[in-house]
Amino acid sequence: MEISNEELIKKAAEVAKLKKVSEDVRIGDVGCALVTDNGNIHLGVSIHACCGIGFCGEHSAIASMVTNKEYKIKKIVATTGDGTILPPCGRCREMIYEINEENLDTEIIVEKDKTVRLKELLPRRWQETWDLES
Ligand SMILES: [Zn+2]
């Protein structure tokens, strides 16, 4: 039984619990839940730190996924603690793609009842452009 958008959104929101761990570092502004092609769920939270050393919720969910030797994302969502959905930033879109090129078909939840494929959010690959010029 495939997990519903609503359940995945709920899991992301459940881990998005803001915690200030030091003067400059906040954890959990954003939570992320993804389900792999094998049906396994991985969760992650953002780390907001100064000097650009933090990362998005998607990054930590993907880190959990690859730690478990999985690379193909069926569906992914990031939210704030109240369940507000945040589409992935450009860096995360690129990371999802680079982990596995087949992730261009990953469903990204952009609204409660709406998903788009990664390829719709990342329509022109920079490698393709580079190849054309060589
Ligand atoms: Zn991001």
Task: Describe what this molecule looks like in 3D.
The protein has helices at 5-15, 57-67, 90-99, 118-121, 126-133, and strands at 19-20, 26-36, 41-48, 73-79, 107-111, 114-117. It has 134 residues and is α+β, with helices and mostly antiparallel strands. The longest helix is centred in the N-terminal third of the chain and has 11 residues, at 5-15. Bound molecules: zinc ion. Residues 56, 58, 88-89, 91-92 line the site of zinc ion.
The main β sheet shows up as: 6 strands, mixed
The structural domain count equals: 1
Oligomer: single chain
Q: Class by helix and strand content? A: alpha+beta
Count of individual helical segments = 5
- Tell me which ligands are bound: zinc ion
- Name the CATH architecture: 3-Layer(aba) Sandwich
Q: Helix fraction? A: 25-40%
Q: Taking all residues together, what is the mean pLDDT?
A: 94
| End-to-end distance | 46 Å
Can you tell me the CATH topology? Cytidine Deaminase, domain 2
Alpha-carbon Rg, integer: 15 Å
Tally of DSSP β-strands:
6
CATH superfamily: Cytidine Deaminase, domain 2
Strand content: 25-35%
Q: Which shape, going by the Cα principal axes?
A: globular
Series of H and E elements: HEEEHEHEEHH
